[in-house]
Amino acid sequence: MPELQRLRADHAPALLAFERENRAWFARTISDRGDAYFAEFPARHQALLTYQDEGTDHFHVLVADDGTTILGRFNLMDIEDGEAELGFRMAESATGQGLATQAAHAVCHLAATDYALTSLRAQANLDNLASHTVLTRAGFTVTGETVLRNGTAGRRYVKELAGGAAGATGL
Ligand SMILES: CC(C)(COP(=O)(O)OP(=O)(O)OC[C@H]1O[C@@H](n2cnc3c(N)ncnc32)[C@H](O)[C@@H]1OP(=O)(O)O)[C@@H](O)C(=O)NCCC(=O)NCCS
């Protein structure tokens, strides 16, 4: 069963492969990261680990049964006053199996327990039906509409978190 793991330095090669192999897939629904992201990947990876150490973000990768291949990313970003923004993306080859929904549940549990967060926000393009399904199934509710960073219309979500037992990372 795939495992949700907190981002580490040694995830870098598999994470770069995940982003490269799925670049065109992601660009169909969310903003492309641009060529600079790939050229500067090692420095950016180190920067994410620094943010994580500083407690402003908690990054996670969904690792396949082979222990190496990355199937998805589930990130808690811009943490402030107990609130964070949830962002996620799955490898095209791993979609349609309910894995994003399960991982979203798991990262919400981590947010409430290990990270002691009280509320999560999320947003998705109005046309991104798979993302709306994942967020709704993970317990998010719609709070309104917004304009996303790429200029398209989006829907905003929130999920209030209740504290619980720490330590669960399996799906
Ligand atoms: C959104 C995303 C994470 C969903 O991943 P996933 O693992 O396929 O999600 P799940 O299988 O848990 O659930 C998705 C549900 O949406 C449904 N769905 C997928 N595409 C759909 C579409 N075009 N119209 C309606 N429903 C759709 C699936 O059938 C599934 O429902 P089901 O279980 O009843 O079949 C994945 O498609 C992805 O990474 N897309 C590119 C990046 C992205 O959009 N990220 C989110 C940004 S907000």
Automatic annotation (TrEMBL):
It holds the Pfam family Acetyltransf_3. Residues 2-162 form the N-acetyltransferase domain. One of its GO terms (cellular component) is cytoplasm. InterPro entries: Acyl_CoA_acyltransferase (IPR016181), GNAT_dom (IPR000182), Ribosomal_N-acetyltransferase (IPR051908). Gene3D superfamilies: 3.40.630.30. One of its GO terms (molecular function) is protein N-terminal-serine acetyltransferase activity. This is GNAT family N-acetyltransferase. Keywords: Transferase.
